[in-house]
Amino acid sequence: MGWQRLRHIGRNNVSSFTEFGTLVKNRHRPKDKPKDTKVALGFLAPWLIGAIFLSLIPMLYSLVISFTKYNMIKPPQFVGLMNYRHMLIDPRFLSSLKVTLTYVVISVPLQLVAALALAVLLDRGMRGLAFYRSAFYLPSMLGGSVAVAVLWKMVFGSDGLFNALINLFGASSSMSWIANPDTANWTLIALHVWQFGSPMVIFLAGLRQIPRELYEAASVDGAGKWKQFTAITLPQLSPIIFFNLVMSVINSFQTFTQAYVVSGGTGGPSDSTLFYTLYLYQQGFASLRMGYASALAWIMVLIVAVLTGINFALSKFWVHYDD
C-alpha cells in the first residue's frame, strides 16, 4: 500500500512537472500578433507611403543632385563639390545668410518675450479668457498668409497706417518702411513678433501646471511678484521656454511667404529682405539651378541642426526638469 501510494504521488508530481515545463516553454514562445495589427498598419499605410514617397525619397534625391549641375531640362551632370564651393564666393548667398540670421536672432527672443508676457497676464483668471486666447492666437494662423503679407506691405507703405500713427503724435513721416533697405527687414521682424499666438498658448498651458502652493509659500516668505516670477515661474517654465525656442528658430529659418510678397520675389530693396529660403527659391525655380538650390537646402538643414544642437547643449545650464 505504501509503495503504491508513493508511486501515485510520483505520477502526480511527474504530471505536475510536465505541466510546469509546458508553461515555461509556452512562456518564452513569442505570442501571436493580435488581429488588430493589420488594421493598425492599414491606417498607418497612407502616412507611411506619403512619408516615404513625398518626403524621404525627394530628400535623398535632392542630396544626390546637390552634387550635380541640373536645370530640369538636361540630365544631371555630376560636378562633385562645386556647388558647395561656389557658396563661399557667392555674395548673394552670404547676404541671404546674414539677413536670415539677423531676422532669427532678433525676432525669436522678442516673440517669446511677448508671448510669455501675455500668457502671464491671461493666467490671472480674467473674464473672457477663451475669447482673448483665441484673439491672440489668430495672428499665428494668419501671419504666414499672402493676404496678411500684402496688408503688412500696405501698413508700412509711404501712405500706410504706420506713418499715419506717427503723424498723429506730432511727428512727420512719409517714408516707405518697406522700400527702405535700413528698415525693410525690421518690418518683417515685427510681423514675426506679431505671430506670438502659438507660443503664448503653450506658455499658458505651462503656467496652469505650476502648483499654486509655491506662490503661496513664497508670499508668506515675503517674496514680491517679480521675485516669484524669477524664482518660481521661469524655472518651472524653462522646459517649455526651451521647446518654444527650438521650434521658433526652426520656423524662422523657413520664413518665405512674407519676404516674397513684400519684396515681389526679388529680396529687395538692395537684398535687405533676401531671406535664405527666398534665395533658394530664386536659384531653383527662377534660374533653374536645381543642383545649386539643393546644395543650399542641405546647408540650411546643416545650419539648423547645428543651432539646435547648440541649444540642446546649453539647455543643461538653464533648463530645469522636475525629478
Automatic annotation (TrEMBL):
Residues 97-311 form the ABC transmembrane type-1 domain. The keyword ATP-binding does not apply. Coiled coil: none annotated. The chain crosses the membrane at residues 39-61, 101-122, 134-155, 161-179, 186-207, 295-314. It is a multi-pass membrane protein. It comes from the Bacteria. Keywords: Cell membrane, Membrane, Transmembrane, Transmembrane helix, Transport. This is Sugar ABC transporter permease.
